[in-house]
Specification:
By secondary structure, this protein is mostly helical. The protein has helices spanning 11-36, 52-73, 92-103, 112-117, 130-155; strands spanning 119-121, 127-129.
Length: 161
């Protein structure tokens, strides 16, 4: 059940949680479109983007990881987000619902000062404030949805001039 919008101490956190949900769902729709078109991704040295299945697991795993990291940094309780299941393609809707349900709540008491000022090293070494990590989490599925959209566009037959 969604948290009451007024429950968030910091409206920016509420907005970023909502934007994350919107864009993660948009990514899933684009991923399904690519899957339905039997899209083969371009060759890549990055194992996270060498197939549609790998990309899906990467985007969902990252979404989980961002909130787990934020909760660890703020010494909040574990958000209890299940790991991406091996059969995620078959359980996609249920897993996305679970993930987003767990995203909606841990940050209700986050204040703007903590979100903007406290900084922490990410798992890959970049230092972020919580607000910036939330923005990163919002942009991540957008970037991969664009990657899929471009790949789908390059497969379209070119119209005669």
């Amino acid at each position: 059940m969604p948290i009451d919008e007024q429950a968030y101490a910091y409206g920016g956190a509420r907005a970023l949680v909502q934007l994350h949900e919107r864009h993660l769902r948009d990514f899933v729709r684009m991923w399904r479109r690519a899957k339905g078109a039997d899209l083969a991704l371009p060759a890549s040295q990055d194992p996270d983007t060498d197939s549609l299945g790998a990309m899906l697991r990467h985007v969902l795993g990252a979404a989980r990881g961002y909130m787990v990291w934020i909760c660890e940094c703020l010494e909040l309780p574990d958000p209890d987000i299940a790991a991406v299941p091996d059969d995620v393609e078959e359980a996609l809707d249920a897993y996305v619902d679970h993930l987003l349900e767990r995203w909606d709540g841990p940050l209700v008491e986050l204040d703007q000062k903590t979100a903007d000022r406290a900084t922490f090293a990410s798992r890959w070494g970049t230092v972020y404030c919580i607000d910036a990590m939330l923005e990163h989490a919002v942009m991540h599925p957008i970037r991969h949805a664009l990657q899929l959209e471009r790949a789908l566009g390059s497969q379209a037959p070119h119209a005669a001039l």
